TrEMBL record, chain A:
Keywords: Membrane, Transmembrane, Transmembrane helix. Coiled coil: none annotated. The chain crosses the membrane at residues 35-58, 70-91, 112-137, 149-174, 186-207, 244-265, 324-344, 350-370, 391-412, 424-446, 467-487, 493-517. It comes from the Bacteria. This is ABC transporter permease.
Automatic annotation (TrEMBL), chain B:
The keyword Transmembrane does not apply. It comes from Paractinoplanes pyxinae. InterPro entries: AAA+_ATPase, ABC_transporter-like_ATP-bd, ABC_transporter-like_CS, ABC_transporter_ATP-binding, P-loop_NTPase. The lineage of its organism: Bacteria, Bacillati, Actinomycetota, Actinomycetes, Micromonosporales. It is a peripheral membrane protein. One of its GO terms (molecular function) is ATP binding. Coiled coil: none annotated. PANTHER family: ABC TRANSPORTER ATP-BINDING PROTEIN, DOXORUBICIN RESISTANCE ATP-BINDING PROTEIN DRRA. Keywords: Antibiotic resistance, ATP-binding, Nucleotide-binding, Transport. It is found in: Cell membrane. This is ABC transporter ATP-binding protein. Pfam families: ABC_tran.
Length: 536, 259
């Protein structure tokens, strides 16, 4: 074969975009359930786009410049933050275009980054964000004419690029960081720091809201306008205000941020493409006792149930996706009620959310380990035993956390007498959430890609996960409304009976849900296995 | 490794399949496969890639619900009485993950306890298996970090742990190094000599020819040939029979001339 010098291929993102679209279409072919989910997702994205457009266009229609300043800058900043946190918390990242798969191709890194970036832009979230922020252009046009509109148009495109870039960079860095075992422990600490930083910010916001001090908000919005969070969204208003000098400065801020983010992303990608080669750190150590001893520890019973629970506990700690879910729950669990307590509110209503967030991790519990579940099928583990063991292992982590959260929130909020009642509400929500999520986890299981990233999602999977989660959350909230009302009506009496009533409510809901889930599982084991097997 | 002696009344075939059918979307993966595996036989299921070997075995052990047909293990209906059938069965599936976030010893302990064995027996057998298969009794490496060959071996150990009467192994020798393969062959031969039944799939003729008392050839989801090795092979080599039955293309010598 003759060696000819091939000309350097032009950098074109189109192959990546086409690949992404083809993957989406291929994922839908012949799978009615996926198509339904996709359509539902598209409808939701459409609602988001229309609602967002309407919201952002209102200040222009009513010709209120101050409202425009606050809404565009604060709303835009919220969008950027949403792009960072939603993938981490709920949806995961569509890694159907997994960078590791390009590792063997002779692609320059620049081509790869541009291509992956373009592919990330080709999707419903990016489209609906763009459509929603188009409302800002309308506002800018109403307030400042066509010049402002053009500036704002460039602004929202840059804003969208910022959203996507920050989202990819953060999740990629996070995933790469969690990949090596040692750094995962560091990540826990990092999370705590981030939560500690977010807390005061939240408090300031709440304090501002309580005093209804709109001036403070306007100042905050204007300050944000000079940060990458809101700079792209405010250029149209600057033109409308006649501050033309601000426009190039803000564009520079955004461009600098984009370059920085892409550089950061490409650096973490490099590490991601090297893969999990560095994870095999565990060596052959000394004998830590018998095989059963190493699985079960001292306390768990040497039975089938004990083995199932022990394996689940190991998995919550050793499997990236599960560990990420636990960490998310821990952070959100402390952060939400603490900030409310410290600002003088009652942690009660928030307490229900904590129980709720806890069960989200179980919505696709069978998907985590893929078709390894076949081992339990071959051993003939009955459905109810399977379900109970999984919940027992989850509760080992969650119940102590709920207890701790209730105590800390109560003490810091200066209302120790609320602790039992709040704990009761949390346990009730946890039980009700379990009752709903367990049947869902049997019927709505879907395959996760065999990726080492805890946020990887197959195409369409993120949508499924988001919808399942949303459904369970709404259902649980509805189910616990009676208890909330009761707690509110009873007042001081609830302080005494809250814990036993809440626990009883939670147990009852759990027993019903786990029974249904167990029976369904008995009937549908092969179907469940097929559903969680990747690549079918 | 001891195999419990056959009990009275268990004269049934180790595995009987009647008209198994499985269709994926529009593709017919397995079409009307009927097969009788005599107890105490070493049965090789041969077929090219994508022939339906794994699909057939999955339906036979209760992992994949057949669209039609029935499967019996030692006379117990796999789909009507799964508990009785599965209790006497050890399986090494192919393309199925293990619970790979456990260490080897932990995984064995898990499988043993899942089968309702007492802890002392589990520990003793697990240590023995880890030792014989050279996986290390004190190996703290997670199974996910094992090499492909080690993963096959630990999977085999899990299937053997509860001393099943029937072993169903999907591609047990794939990715296993020659030394380990010899060790596994020896274990399996001893197991069959003790009265156990092994059913395994492969596309490696030499292994099948050396080990099996019976073979079945499957291609495109259809059972083409089955019987004792001698009756299937006749006077020819198994490879010749296989290529002829499966209908592989013969080289004309002119393809890939640029190579």
């Amino acid at each position: 074969m003759a060696l000819t010098a091939t000309p350097r291929p032009p950098v074109s993102p189109w192959p990546f975009v086409k690949l992404k679209l083809r993957l989406i279409v291929g994922g839908l072919r012949g799978k009615p359930a996926r198509i339904v989910l996709f359509v539902l997702g598209a409808v939701m994205a459409g609602f988001f786009a229309i609602g967002g457009y309407a919201l952002f266009a209102v200040p222009g229609v009513v010709d209120d410049e101050r409202a425009a300043g606050m809404l565009l800058q604060l709303g835009g900043a919220a969008l950027v933050l949403g792009w960072v946190f939603f993938p981490l918390l709920f949806f995961g990242v569509d890694e159907s275009i997994d960078p590791a798969r390009f590792a063997l191709l002779p692609l320059p890194r620049r081509t790869l980054i541009i291509g992956l970036f373009a592919a990330a832009l080709a999707g419903l979230p990016a489209l609906s964000t763009l459509a929603a922020t188009a409302g800002m252009v309308s506002t800018a046009a109403d307030l400042g004419g066509s010049g402002a509109a053009i500036a704002q148009l460039v602004g929202i495109v840059l804003g969208l690029l910022t959203c996507v870039a920050v989202s990819r960079a953060v999740t990629s860095a996070f995933a790469t960081g969690l990949r090596s075992r040692r750094s995962r422990d560091l990540a826990v600490v990092l999370f705590a720091v981030v939560a500690a930083l977010l807390g005061p910010l939240q408090l300031a916001l709440l304090a501002g809201a309580e005093r209804a001090d709109w001036d403070a908000f306007a100042v905050l919005a204007d300050v944000l306008g000079w940060t990458p969070l809101a700079a792209p969204w405010s250029v149209g208003l600057d033109v409308a205000d006649g501050r033309l000098w601000a426009v190039p400065v803000k564009f520079l801020i955004v461009a600098g941020t984009l370059v920085g983010l892409l550089w950061w992303w490409s650096a973490t990608l490099e590490r991601a493409m090297l893969g999990a080669a560095s994870t095999g750190t565990a060596g052959r150590g000394g004998d830590v006792g018998s095989p059963t001893g190493s699985l079960l520890g001292r306390r768990l019973p040497r039975t089938r149930f004990g083995a199932l629970v022990a394996r689940e506990i190991r998995y919550w700690w050793r499997e990236n996706r599960r560990r990420a879910a636990l960490i998310t729950f821990t952070v959100a669990g402390f952060f939400l009620p603490l900030s409310i307590s410290l600002s003088g509110g009652s942690a009660g209503p928030v307490a229900t959310f904590i129980g709720l967030i806890a069960v989200i991790a179980l919505a696709n519990q069978f998907g985590y380990e893929g078709n390894a579940y076949a081992a339990n099928m071959i051993a003939g583990v009955p459905g109810r035993v399977e379900i109970h063991s999984r919940v027992a292992a989850h509760a080992v982590f969650v119940i102590p956390l709920l207890l701790l959260i209730a105590v800390v929130a109560g003490l810091l909020g200066g209302r120790p007498e609320n602790i039992p009642g709040d704990l009761g509400l949390m346990v009730a929500t946890y039980g009700a959430g379990l009752g709903l999520v367990l049947p869902v986890s049997v019927r709505g299981a879907f395959a996760l890609p065999e990726s080492t990233s805890p946020f990887a999602m197959s195409s369409g999977g993120g949508m499924a996960k988001g919808l399942l989660t949303l459904g369970v959350m709404i259902g649980t909230l509805v189910a616990t409304v009676p208890l909330q009302i009761l707690a509110y009506l009873l007042g001081d009496v609830w302080l005494w009976i809250g814990l036993p009533v809440g626990a009883a409510f939670g147990c009852a809901a759990y027993l019903i849900g786990s029974g249904v889930a167990g029976d369904w599982l008995d009937r549908r084991m092969p179907e469940l296995l097929a559903a969680v097997t990747p690549g079918r | 490794m001891t195999v419990p002696a056959p009990r009275e009344g268990e004269q049934a075939a180790a595995m009987s399949l009647y008209g198994l059918v499985k269709r994926f979307d529009t593709k017919l993966a397995v079409s009307e496969v009927s097969l009788e595996v005599p107890a105490g036989s070493f049965y090789g299921l041969l077929g090219p890639n994508g022939a339906g070997k794994t699909t057939t075995l999955s339906m036979a052990v209760g992992l994949l619900r057949p669209d039609a047909g029935r499967a019996f293990l030692l006379g117990y209906d796999v789909w009507a009485d799964p508990a009785a059938a599965k209790a006497r069965l050890g399986v090494l599936p192919d393309g199925v993950r293990l619970f790979d976030r456990l260490t080897g010893p932990e995984l064995l302990a898990y499988h043993g306890l899942l089968r309702g064995m007492d802890a002392a027996t589990v520990d003793q057998r697990a240590r023995e298996l880890l030792d014989v298969l050279e996986l290390g009794t004190a190996n703290r490496t997670l199974v996910v970090d094992y090499s492909a060959g080690m993963r096959k071996k630990i999977g085999l150990a899990c299937a053997l742990l509860h001393a099943p009467r029937v072993l169903v192994l999907d591609e047990p020798f794939e990715a296993v190094d020659p030394v380990s393969a010899a060790r596994i062959r020896e274990i399996l031969q001893r197991y069959v000599a003790g009265g156990g039944t092994v059913i395994f799939s492969s596309h490696v003729m030499e292994v099948v020819e050396r080990l099996c008392s019976h073979v079945a050839i499957i291609s495109d989801g259809v059972l083409r040939l089955h019987g004792t090795l001698a009756s299937v092979r006749g006077e020819r080599s198994l490879e010749d029979v296989f290529v002829q039955v499966v209908g592989g293309r013969t080289s004309t010598g002119s393809e890939l001339a640029w190579l």
